[in-house]
Amino acid sequence: MVKFLLQISAELKNLTDLQPQDGCDDPDYSYFFKLRCEWCGELSPRETFVSLNETVPLPARNKRTANVIRKRTAKVIRRRTANVIQKCKLCERVGMILMHPGLGMPLTQAASDARQFVPVMIFDFRGFVPVDSVFVGGWRAESLSGINFEHIDLSARKFVEYDVEYPVMISNLQAAGGWSSLLSVMQDVILESGISACLRENLQLRVVPVEEGKDAGVSSSRPSQTKALPIRLLQLFALFLVFCITFSVISIYTIRHFGIIGVMTTVAASFQPCLEEPRGLDRWIKPPSSVKHTMNDEELLWRASFTPRIKKYPFERVPKIAFMFLTKGPLPLAPLWERFLKGHEGLYSVYVHSLPSFQPHFNPSSVFYGRHIPSQVAEWGRMSMCDAERRLLANALLDISNERFILLSESCIPLYNFSVIYQYLMKSKYSYVGAFDDPGPYGRGRYNDNMAPEVSISKWRKGSQWFEVNRKLAITIVEDTKFYPKFKEFCRPACYVDEHYFPTMLTIEAGNSLANRSITWVDWSRGGPHPATFGRADITEEFLKRIFERQRCTYNDRNSTVCFLFGRKFAPSAVEPLLHLAPKFLGF
């Protein structure tokens, strides 16, 4: 029998709190080990995986076998299951692995700087000895700016990504195991958590046998506990009898002096009638009181696709703009948006889709407070990104007053004041989705013949991810079941589905409704796979003037010099100079 404490160490750059996806006790995370048989020394041909949510009953082929196994395990686990039961292929002896959660810690930046190992999980190997551990995907960490990185793949023992402000990295990842330091680790956890002395003593009693490599024996206090149990039951039973007698006396006295009718009247009066849901028009036209709900994506898209057959509204409808923010986490430019939206309540709605693990902290007076919708992980270039965009549209469609829907990122800014943008969109005959036919390798070269006949290569389109659509096209997007399966199955990297799905589908379904251009300005002049990002040093009067110069486009089939209503990408450091220059150049 081997008690094994798995510990990790790594060099973290601009990251902290490295741990499995749902914490060190993540029930779904799988640990992989190379094992050697304790009896014959045979090395397992491949790794064995073990996780908390995978349990199997202890084998009991006959009474004698069952008794032996229970004697060896009941003292430690108090259960009839193990996390893994495996037979050696050479000697055919059965071994097992048991997991003991509750003592894992995230690897922090401070521990990384000190080159310390931190505990992750305790394993009880019976019949096997671990010789190596293998890292896989399913980890998460938090950047120093508060952005969470999820589903990190550590199979290569390294990770490199880019935060909004700086690069983040995991390197020199190491695993260590043993049992000599187990007691000190548990004592550190006890001291840090500040738990009671009684519980501390109990934990120490359980740790000592682990240190010595013995089974954790039953506490010597069991006989006294057994004796105390009947006394406790008798006390509870006596208390119950006193309560029953008291209640009976009060009931008899009440009925004798006030009559049974008076008692029944009092009881009946305590019940309130069940109030039905209002059946008036308000239940259909009022927006949901909260963006939080329990609908899954299928239910949400179905509900959002509802549309009245009669186009004339039987009430005074004030159309609104739905600002939909697709983010990883924080909204560093929120102060600029707060100023932009101030004073225009009732003409806009705000929806935010972030990583599900992100916890927003906005003041209750903020326009972003309570506006984070139920979200899922969205990966760039994959269908999960389009799923997030459809999720935003569907939530916004639940408010029947929302008429125009604009997709934005955390790095977007408005280029005009609210009144200009509102009038521009509400008076527009078109929706602003870029959809052009690119004959090159990054356009038609991404087309897959398996998408026919629903999508032919002549209808294959490419465009910017950042779109603006009216309510009719928003419903077209969320109710699509014809094109979605084709793009999900056959448009995978290096076919970046977020650049092709909506442009192609809307070209086929409603091509005459598209302006075939974006209203979000970006700068590709620096080259590379991503547009330029602008920080504090870039935000000058000359820079803002340059954005508005030489704009040429059509608006409602007429030439116009107002083409871009929003701009990206702006770094968090740009917010201060933008707030300073906004009154003069942006009009708010």
Automatic annotation (TrEMBL):
Natural source organism: Malus domestica (Apple)
Membrane topology of the entry: Single-pass type II membrane protein
GO molecular function annotation: glycosyltransferase activity
Coiled-coil regions listed: none
Family matches, as InterPro entries: BC10-like, CXXC_Zn-binding_euk, Glyco_trans_14
Primary location class: membrane
Lineage: Eukaryota, Viridiplantae, Streptophyta, Embryophyta, Tracheophyta
GO cellular component terms, A-Z: membrane
Assigned keywords, A-Z: Glycoprotein, Glycosyltransferase, Membrane, Transferase, Transmembrane, Transmembrane helix
Subcellular localization: Membrane
Protein name: Uncharacterized protein
Keyword Glycosyltransferase: yes
Keyword Transferase assigned: yes
PANTHER family: CORE-2/I-BRANCHING BETA-1,6-N-ACETYLGLUCOSAMINYLTRANSFERASE FAMILY PROTEIN-RELATED, CORE-2_I-BRANCHING BETA-1,6-N-ACETYLGLUCOSAMINYLTRANSFERASE FAMILY PROTEIN
Alphabetized Pfam families for the sequence: Branch, CXXC_Zn-b_euk
Transmembrane segments: 233-255
